[in-house]
């Protein structure tokens, strides 16, 4: 049950389960304790996760993996323990880091990875402990991603080439690495190659990764091809993919296509979807359409946030809709109770400046 609470982010129910487990004395059980730790970590309560870990009289690799993964995901700046110390502490307790341990360590933030040179250390650890990259595709994907984030995509490619065929995750990691590092042609070549391989099936993340490259190299035609591929594979209800399509279509100036994606019946729009559509209209100088989308968002029960406010105010400024922009700004402060951030105030100043109403 605690695992389910963690997956859905239900912290209150998770705490109730923890209390009942504590009363019947099961909290010291390895499986139960690790499940509770995972629940707290996934619910954003890393401190509680760490507390449970510290209270365990004896720990196994699974417990260490939850802590390391939780820290890597949380980005908790108050937690100052060196990640290299984790491995040392594990070994002091007679435990050997496994594939999951190393994969979690590879997911650390870019700055930490470069600053502490963990990448080279972890690659050496993989080699010394014979963690086979040829068959451990998840580990290989994490390693490729780490090198790509550190602007060493050529080293990531060597890891990719050393794997036995790979799977969709290793291919996607390599494509994403090329695109993020500006090697768009190489990313497209890999994407074209993956489509003719029977043993590797494209997934949603693959399409999201290659979209920027298709847009930059092939323009609107390339984006339409990816969109068609998504429809063919029935991925067109995925939020991340649809948001990426809305953003790319907007940048290409094809707002009709962006609108079609946004208004697709089975697509559950999130704040990014609305913000992308509003900003797209704003960039094209279509302030009235941006306001219409913003009002529609509110009418459907969605709350505005700083990003959507900035998007619609920018659209008003570009289109000279000062009265409408000020009305939205006032309702933001009074009704939506959103604080007037520097970004929001800058939009208002810019809007007034464009219309010559400053001073």
Describe this entry's structure for a reader.
The protein is an all-alpha fold and 359 residues long. Among the domains are: 203-268; 286-359, no CATH class. It is built from 21 helices and no strands. The protein has helices spanning 2-8, 11-24, 30-42, 46-55, 61-74, 83-92, 99-106, 110-116, 118-128, 137-149, 153-162, 168-180, 184-194, 204-232, 239-251, 255-262, 271-283, 287-299, 306-319, 322-334, 342-354. α1 runs parallel beside α3 (30-42), α16 (255-262) runs antiparallel to α17 and α19 runs antiparallel to α20. The protein is globular and about 70 Å long. The chain starts with a helix and ends in a 5-residue tail after the last helix. The relative contact order is 0.04. Mean pLDDT is 82; it is low at 1-8. PPR repeats lie at residues 29-63, 167-201, 270-304. Pfam families: PPR.
